[in-house]
Design brief:
By secondary structure, the protein is mostly helical. It is built from 18 helices and 2 strands. It is globular.
């Protein structure tokens, strides 16, 4: 009962935040702007492609070999119109974003845990990457970026508002000559791979919340269910032609889809699992801040592909997104350091790096919508906000978010998404027209609500199947030896 009462303030705070965002955003009643047309292009293109394909089949004057390619297009597809420059950039960006998880995030998290859990923490990132890849290949891509089909009495447009389809399950229908209608200049195989790297890092970020206490089998089952039932639907709502993108919610590279989503899920996991043994009474210092420095540096470099790659082209928007990413990261690192010096009199390496990541998180939803001045302001604000969330809020609400998955990614994503509604400008991106805080808040409210509720259900399923938490004896000895039979050599 005492543990339940300890977690109650965190649960209440999450519910109040969600309710406030729904109220600020007017829930369903968000004005549609130019982004609605962009998001709706998926369904329109699909309908046009289907109509053209049918006409080609019925026209006797058209040779069969010419009609065949059009008739094989799936609802979300368009014929490939190869743009070699953009393809080269997205090939590079795909490698950069994959670098963010392996080895970037693995080392970043691995350096911050205790010596006895370093291998286990890094292994979590590897396991999540493997499971997420197979889930994306099997069904995730189709659910996120497919076009919804009539189902259970609902018409295709209604289904499309909430989820894609199973047409492209196991990449059925994806060919060397197909493209997604959102990016006709890119080969669809490349589009699948680039979006896969986002599907990999999002659940990997969640692992920071429950580091040092989760069973590996529980992690793998959690990742399967979370990738399919949390990540894929939210990605579709915002990027795949769903109702949030159609309502005008702006999320350039994943403020809501990646960071708020993973941060909220991490908070729910931390509350559900309870704190580590000795949390609050024993020192739990980072084993190797140098590893964390290496990981953070790889994350910084990889984030260029994350944000600038989300322009989906080698163009001016990609260029400003790249610059914005660097400016915001450095600004947040500086302001985190200032707050830490005021409170603790010394700037720690872990703190400086945490500020750097906070800036990267906050600029993610805004990267291709704001100018560098807006990016600098977002970064300057992100440092103190994420510091407060990671240090003060965690102490106040007494939850053990081991590596600040919510403190940095949840809080930073929320801040960045809201400030996108303030600083987005048509001078950078025409889709910024009509940007506003209520619409952004509405998108965040839906993201928080879905992520929190479905994550909780998934945790209950895992608890009664694979189990979730390691035993007290395993936690005392360390997960490296008890789960993986490996350990770092003692100096």
């Amino acid at each position: 009962m005492s543990q339940l009462l300890n977690r109650l303030p965190g649960v209440i705070a999450l519910c109040l935040l969600t309710a406030a965002l729904f109220y600020a955003g007017g829930a369903f009643a968000a004005p549609a702007g130019p982004v609605a047309a962009a998001a709706g292009a998926v369904a329109e293109t699909a309908e046009a492609a289907t109509t053209e394909a049918a006409a080609a089949v019925e026209a006797a004057a058209v040779p069969e070999e010419e009609a065949a390619p059009a008739s094989t297009l799936l609802a979300h597809q368009a014929p490939l119109e190869l743009n070699e420059a953009s393809t080269s950039w997205i090939l590079t960006s795909t490698a950069l974003v994959l670098l963010m998880t392996l080895p970037g995030l693995a080392l970043f998290y691995g350096g911050m845990v205790r010596r006895k859990n370093v291998i286990a923490t890094i292994t979590q990132s590897v396991g999540v990457a493997a499971v997420s890849t197979l889930c994306w290949f099997a069904i995730g891509y189709s659910l996120a970026f497919g076009v919804g089909q009539p189902m259970l009495g609902f018409d295709g447009d209604t289904v499309q508002s909430f989820i894609g389809s199973t047409q492209a399950a196991f990449l059925n229908g994806v060919t060397m000559t197909s493209a997604h209608s959102l990016a006709p200049g890119l080969p669809e195989y490349l589009w699948v791979a680039y979006q896969l790297t986002f599907a990999i890092i999002t659940p990997a970020l969640v692992t920071g919340a429950f580091a040092e206490r989760l069973k590996y089998s529980g992690l793998l089952l959690f990742t399967v269910l979370w990738s399919i039932f949390v990540y894929a639907p939210i990605a579709h709502w915002v990027w795949g032609g769903g109702f949030l993108g159609s309502a005008g919610v702006l999320d350039f590279a994943g403020g809501a889809v990646v960071h708020v989503n993973s941060g909220v899920a991490g908070l729910v996991c931390a509350l559900f699992l309870g704190p580590r043994k000795g949390y609050g009474t024993e020192a739990m210092n980072a084993h190797n801040p140098v590893l964390t420095m290496i990981g953070a540096s790889l994350l910084l470099v990889g984030w260029i592909g994350f944000n600038a790659g989300s322009a989906w082209a080698a163009d001016s928007i990609a260029s400003v997104a790249l610059l914005n990413t660097i400016v915001a990261a450095m600004a947040a690192s500086l302001t985190w350091k200032i707050v830490e010096v005021i409170e603790k009199r010394k700037p720690s390496l872990i703190g400086v790096l945490s500020g750097l990541i906070a800036g990267l998180v906050a600029i993610t939803p805004a990267a291709g919508f704001v100018d560098p001045m807006g990016a600098m302001i977002i970064g300057l604000v992100a440092g103190p906000v994420c510091y407060a969330s990671s240090v003060w809020l965690k102490k106040l609400l007494r939850y053990d978010d081991s590596l600040d998955a919510f403190g940095i990614h949840g809080a930073g994503g929320l801040l960045g998404a809201i400030l996108t509604g303030v600083f987005a400008t048509t001078a950078v991106n025409s889709l910024s027209e009509g940007a506003n805080i209520p619409t952004q808040a509405m998108g965040l409210a839906w993201t928080i609500a879905w992520s929190a509720v479905v994550t909780f259900i998934i945790l209950v399923i895992c608890k009664f199947t694979t189990g979730l938490r390691v035993s007290d004896a395993q936690e005392d000895e360390g997960l490296d030896t008890t789960l993986h039979g490996e350990a770092l050599e003692k100096a």
